[in-house]
Write a structure and sequence with these properties.
By secondary structure, this protein is an alpha+beta fold. The protein has one domain: Glutaredoxin, CATH 3.40.30.10. The protein has helices spanning 12-28, 40-45, 69-76, and strands at 2-7, 32-37, 53-56, 59-63. Strands 2-1-3-4 form a four-stranded mixed sheet.
Length: 77
């Protein structure tokens, strides 16, 4: 099971990233759990300075932008 983490304060871009990530994981037929990390100190501990960010299994893959569903699918493969 993949652990997908959305790092951000809950802004509209963070919500959009969560939606795109869920759509990408569903399209790939993955088993996954989405976790939203909203605490600034936890976000910074993961080395993220720009939100929103996406981490896959604890590794930050994207930071500071909202990639489209196809791009996220490529990151999850």
């Amino acid at each position: 099971m993949k652990k997908l983490q959305i790092l951000g304060t809950g802004c509209p871009k963070c919500q959009q990233l969560a939606e795109h990530t869920q759509a990408a994981a569903d399209a790939l037929g993955l088993e996954y759990k989405i976790e939203k990390i909203t605490q600034i100190d936890q976000i910074m501990k993961m080395g993220v300075m720009w939100t929103p960010a996406l981490a896959v299994d604890g590794v930050v893959k994207v930071s500071g932008k909202v990639p489209d569903v196809n791009t996220i699918m490529a990151l999850l493969k």
